Amino acid sequence: MFEAIKARGVDQLMALMQQFRADPREQKTDLVVGVYKDDDGAVPIMKSVKAAESRILESETTKNYVGVAGDPELTSKIPALILGMEAPQIANGRVSCVQTPGGTGALRVGCDLIGSIRPGGRIWVSTPTWANHIPIARDAGLTVEQYPYFRPSDRGLDFEGMMAHLKDHAKAGDVILLHACCHNPTGVDLLPEHWEVLGDFVVDRQLLPFVDCAYQGMGSGLEEDVAGLRSIAAKVPEMLIASSFSKNFGIYRERCGGLTAISANADQAKTTMQAMQTVIRSNYSMPPSHGARIVTTVVDDDELKSEWDAELTEMRERIANVRQELRKKLEERQVTQDLSFITNQNGMFSYTGFTPEMVERLREEFGIYTAGDGRINVAGICSDNIDAVAEGFAAVLHQAE
Questions:
Q1: 265 in the same domain as 166
Q2: Long-range contacts: 39-46, Cβ < 8 Å, 24+?
Q3: Which residue, of 47, 155, 156, 214, has the greatest Cβ tally within 10 A?
Q4: Nearest to residue 211, comparing CAs of 275, 151, 124, 273?
Q5: What is the reported pLDDT for 10?
């Protein structure tokens, strides 16, 4: 049987990670892996998380299953974090939520749910989008279409092209996948006015918005990063939201996320909840507990929550400062191209516009590893490597001038 397997190849980012580890050079820089790093180049454990884990260790009395829907304390808090404590959708009973293994698990459960309702249904994703969005949707049996998003000329947002394409091609019943903030891989976010236009369009065209909220708090703030998402939620009868706690709690290996569904009414919300659990039961059956307990312990305690918010602010500000410093160092090296995109883009990622040839030169000559499309993880830049990164970037940018 196995001889019939057709190799799909290793994910490009995974392959680059393996290549970086095998690189014997002492001077090498990893700007590929999408995790937050501090100025020492480490992936830190947040103090609030450590404190929560200590409490969990002392108080935990069982290792029993948490149930198909996950930790009920967590699933009661996720919608409030995303939609707001006073969200009318929650008050009216229109919201259902399940815990998932990370944001990736939420995306897969959401796509499987859509596929169970409308087999082969169409889902629209941005060009480009996170590398795993398309495989997840296709493996769930959905038909993937793409809309314009990134404008290479200024490394900014092509909202006009996006809307023109969707108006010409999107049809009632289609799903549109959006990034709540810190767009991966471009770092180019929708502005408030864009969310308003999109909300009206989604309602008029009868589309289902599916929002990937993987970086809440990593862009402008916990509330600011979901303002656009909330503006659409206020208008639409139905919506799906995949959320992740990997980044904003730094608990990558604990795989904690959630899928929130907004339904037209409370009765449909109950049906949707049952349908999500059916999808989960035949997949991974039940999610893990530890990450969920961390999140709920922090959010439930005013002192820990305040400490977490402060740590998150520190992480966010570090990324913004790195962007400013990198731009400054490139300008000092007489790079004449418009570098405003570095500071205009948001979150951990930046779409540099580097060509495959530039990416290869950075890797081979300077030991700087970026994604093949030129995406970099800004958080991978620190005091010890920023000058080396600036030298490499300036070299390939000068070559392109």
A1: yes
A2: 39/318, 39/382, 39/383, 40/382, 41/380, 41/382, 41/384, 41/385, 43/250, 43/252, 44/250, 45/250, 46/249, 46/250, 46/308, 46/311
A3: 214
A4: 124
A5: 54
What is the pLDDT, as a whole number, of residue 372?
86
Specify whether 132 is located in the same domain as 187: yes
Residue 388 has a pLDDT of 96
Residue that has been written with the tokens 């809307």 in this structure? 163
Last residue of a domain, one of 267, 300, 333: 300
Q: What are phi and psi of 318, to 5 degrees?
A: -60, -45
Is residue 218 located within the same domain as residue 93?
yes
Give the residue numbers spanning the domain of 279: 65-300
Encoded tokens for 238: 């139905």
When computed from its CA atoms, the radius of gyration of the chain, rounded to whole angstroms, is 21
Query: How many CA atoms lie within 13 Å of 141's alpha carbon, on the beta-carbon side?
Result: 11
| 133 contact partners, CB below 8 Å, separation of at least 6 | 107, 125, 177, 212
Show the tokens assigned to 21.
């580890």
Whether the Cβ atoms of residue 156 and residue 344 lie closer than 8 Å to each other: yes
Quickly count: other Cβ atoms within 10 Å of residue 223's Cβ: 12
Whole-structure pTM value:
0.95
Confidence at residue 11, expressed as pLDDT on a 0 to 100 scale: 67
Q: Which of 318, 293, 337 is nearest to 377 (CA)?
A: 318
| pLDDT of res. 12 | 74
Mean pLDDT (10-residue bins), the chain, 401 residues: 76 78 89 92 96 95 95 96 96 97 98 97 97 95 98 94 98 98 96 97 98 97 97 97 97 97 97 98 96 97 97 96 97 92 94 92 94 92 96 91 69
Cis previous bond, 287, omega within 30? no
One domain for residues 134 and 190: yes
Shared-domain flag, residues 171 and 217: yes
Comparing CA positions, the residue from 228, 152, 238, 236 lying closest to residue 196 is 228
Same domain, 196 and 229: yes
CB 137 within 8 A of CB 162: no
CATH code assigned at 124: 3.40.640.10
Report CA torsion sign: 38, 295, 54, 313.
Answer: positive
Number of domains comprising the chain: 2
Active site residues: 130, 212, 247
The secondary structure of 48-96, three-state, reads HHHHHHHHHHHHCCCCCCCCCCCCHHHHHHHHHHHHCCCCHHHHCCCEE
